Amino acid sequence: MIRSGMKWMFLIIGTMIGAGYASGRELWQFFGHESGLAILIFTILFTISCYVILRISFEKKSKHYLPVLRTIVGDHLTLLYDGMIILYLFTTTVIMLAGSGATWQAFHFSYWLGIIAIIVPLILVFVWDIKGILSMNSIILPLLIGGLLYVLILFSVQQELSMFSHFGEQSNWPAAFPFTALNILPLIAVLGAVGSEVRYKGEIWIASIGSGLVLGSISFIYNSSLIQIADDILLYEIPLFAILKHYPYEMFLFISFLLWIAIFTTAASGVLGLITRFRNRLKGPLWLLAAITLFLMLPLTSIGFSTLIKYLYPLYGLLNLYVLSAILLYPFLNRYKIS
């Protein structure tokens, strides 16, 4: 049960830690100064949301997100939010592809070569269906989390940062709500696709609490580090590179690889949510559906990584507040069903 719970935990983290998050751009967009309390609230809200979504998915034995979405928002709003999820998964996967291009550009390779380099393995991983995604996450996400924490903690020690020096300044606490809401739709899409694979309720607790604690801790350390280089962030497409500018080239190379992995795992989660949604209508193996979906995204990748995040992420965060509210209220309104 613990191993299975960890499997879902890595699926959740892989959905969250994408180009926007791992690069620092998404965190800085919502948090920044005076956000310690905001990150704590996010951790709590995220843990509850993961539990409710995964629990509904488990009870429905769902193979795509539509039954879960209908349970959360009701029949009348399902069509609206179904469209939003499709649009969200599509556009954010485009952001991941653009992020891969930006990462390869940092090493003076072609932007389009970076996009091709992510599309090919994305198609290949679906040759093994959903099990391919789960196996991939369980192998590479511990490396990603460990590497990211290593760099952030090393930076904090070298800069002699005091994580709690501004404990009394927490005016940005409302940012927790749109930031959590931003990540609700991909969670519904991905966790809704695996409900039939969950065997025990204990797996849900392990996945929810584990992912909340891991992401909350990384977010707090990461945000504290970014505050120290706030003046440099405007100069970098990817803020994480501003932290790395004084490190040896080998460290820069290693973290760039980890950043690309983060981009890849979230792109895989986005494609998974999309193709499982239409799997019943579009007959064919998952890898073929993934290939068609990814090639449809190619024209949009020229918009640019930071531009997409700047305008799309806050908009989605606000639109998803209703879904977040419905998820948080669900245990109270359905306390006999989810006990």
Automatic annotation (TrEMBL):
Keyword field: Membrane, Transmembrane, Transmembrane helix
Domain of life (superkingdom): Bacteria
TM ranges: 38-58, 79-103, 109-127, 139-157, 177-195, 204-222, 251-274, 286-309, 315-333
InterPro entries: YkvI-like
PANTHER family linked: CONSERVED MEMBRANE PROTEIN, MEMBRANE PROTEIN
Name by which UniProt lists this protein: Membrane protein YkvI
Organism field: Pontibacillus salipaludis
